[in-house]
Design a protein that fits this description.
7-stranded parallel sheet, 7 strands, 18% strand, globular
C-alpha cells in the first residue's frame, strides 16, 4: 500500500502546475513537504492548502546556483529531519529560433533546467542531507527525444537531464537513492488559449492534454516504496504522439 507518512519531500518549482498538485497530493498522503520557487505569493497560497503540519515554504531562484548548498542545509536543519525525496519540477519553457539562440540565452535555460538540477542532486545525495533509501523524480519533457521547431534550448536541457539521470542512478545506487524522470508531452495548463502548433500536437496525442493531477500521482508512485525496483528510467506520458 502507498505510504508516505512522515516522509520529508522537497519540491522545486512548486508554484507551477505540476509541482502544486504534487505538493497537495503528498500532503494528503501524510508527507512533510518543503516547497520552493520564485513566486512567493503563489508559494504562500499553496502552503495554506497543504494538509497536515510541518510543511515549509522557501523562496529560491535556481538561477543563482551558489545558493543551493545553503538552501539544502537550511531545510534539513530547521527541523533536524533529513530528506526522503526530491521532486525537480522547476523549469523554463522557451520558444526561440536557432538564429536567436545565442550563448547567453542557451546558458540561462541550461542553468535552470539542467545545471541547477545537477547541483540539487549533488547536495541531496550527501548522507548528511538525505536518508537511505530515498528517491529523486525530475520532470523532463517529450521534447527531450522529439523537440519541435523553436525548442533548441529547451530540448537540449531536457535531453541533458535524461542522460544525467541514467548516470546518477548508477552512481547513487550504493547510497540507496533512486533517480527517475517523467517525460510529459502537452500538459493542461488550465487555459484554452493555445498556439496552433500546440493544438496540432494535442490532436496527435489523441488523448487530450495531460492532467497534472495524473502526473502528480505518477510522481508520488516513483517517490514511494512501491517503485523500489525502478532506477534510471525516463517515463513517456504522451498519448499516441509519435507512436
Amino acid at each position: 500500500m502507498l505510504n508516505l507518512a512522515n516522509k520529508k519531500i522537497l519540491i522545486t518549482g512548486a508554484s507551477g502546475n505540476i509541482g502544486r498538485h504534487t505538493a497537495i497530493l503528498l500532503s494528503e498522503l501524510g508527507a512533510k513537504v518543503i516547497i520552493t520557487g520564485r513566486n512567493e505569493k503563489a508559494l504562500s497560497q499553496l502552503l495554506q492548502n497543504l494538509h497536515g503540519n510541518g510543511h515549509k515554504s522557501v523562496t529560491l531562484d535556481l538561477n543563482d546556483i551558489s545558493k543551493i548548498s545553503d538552501f539544502i542545509k537550511d531545510i534539513v536543519e530547521f527541523d533536524g529531519q533529513k530528506l526522503d525525496g526530491l521532486v525537480y519540477s522547476a523549469g523554463i519553457i522557451p520558444t526561440l529560433p536557432i538564429k536567436n539562440s545565442n550563448y547567453e540565452f542557451m546558458n540561462k535555460i541550461m542553468t535552470t533546467n539542467f545545471f541547477a538540477f545537477v547541483e540539487m542532486v549533488r547536495y541531496f545525495s550527501n548522507k548528511k542531507f538525505s536518508n537511505n533509501p530515498s528517491s529523486i523524480v525530475a520532470i523532463s519533457s517529450y521534447a527531450a527525444i522529439n523537440g519541435d521547431k523553436g525548442q533548441l534550448a529547451y530540448a537540449a536541457s531536457k535531453g541533458a537531464m535524461d542522460s544525467a539521470t541514467m548516470v546518477m542512478a548508477k552512481e547513487l545506487f550504493s547510497k540507496g537513492i533512486r533517480v527517475n524522470t517523467i517525460r510529459p508531452a502537452i500538459v493542461d495548463s488550465g487555459t484554452d488559449e493555445l498556439p496552433d502548433r500546440v493544438k496540432q500536437l494535442v490532436d496527435m496525442m489523441q488523448t487530450g492534454r495531460i492532467n497534472p493531477k495524473n502526473l502528480a500521482e505518477q510522481i508520488v508512485f516513483l517517490l514511494s516504496d512501491l517503485s523500489s525496483g525502478v532506477y534510471g528510467r525516463c517515463f513517456d506520458v504522451r498519448g499516441y504522439l509519435a507512436c
